[in-house]
Amino acid sequence: MLVELAAANAAFAVIKETIANTGELMNAGKALSQLLDSEATLRKRLLDKSGDTVNTDAEEFFALEQIRVQKEQLELAMTYSGRPGLIDDWRMFQAKAAKQRKEAVEEEIRNKMMRRNRIIEGLWWSVLAGVLAFSIYFTIIIITLFKDRS
């Protein structure tokens, strides 16, 4: 959690410094993406909690709150130093980035499932080949035993 918060704070510092030095928000694109990624990671960790202490949940909640305040400051900076309609474009960008992150996670899950299914299928084929080899071997032994008796 501290890593994501530190990354978000660093990204916000870069964004603020870029706006202060150049007056242009467009020069801080990488930092904007890093801020969004840090927020998404923190949200995911907060939602995926399983049995951790309340303090950790509270810390992550306040970390998300800090990122929310930073995003509000960023939108305020966009309002005053950005072009007309920049806020709307920013919100569309955020929605698109969230959708892409969600699709990437779904693709990763799909790839894991496919890999697991291929492993299971390979094991089944191996078991089938073993049973077939054992059956052929056993059949040969039975045939030779009956052949010797005749």
| Separation, N- and C-terminal Cα atoms | 79 Å
Q: What's the story with the biggest beta sheet?
A: none
* Strand-pairing-aware structural class: mainly alpha
Q: How large is the count of helical segments? A: 4
Q: Which residues form runs of ≥5 with pLDDT under 50?
A: none
Helix percentage: over 70%
Number of strands: 0
List the secondary-structure elements in sequence, H or E: HHHH
Instruction: Estimate what percentage of residues fall within beta strands.
Output: under 5%
Give the radius of gyration.
Answer: 29 Å
Shape: rod-shaped
Overall pLDDT: 82
Question: Features of this protein?
Answer:
rod-shaped, single chain, 150 residues, mainly alpha, 0% strand
In short:
It contains four helices and no strands. With 150 residues, the chain is mainly α.
Structure commentary:
88% of the residues lie in helices and 0% in strands. With 150 residues, the chain is mainly alpha-helical. The protein has a domain at 1-82. The chain has helices at 2-22, 29-47, 54-81, 86-149.
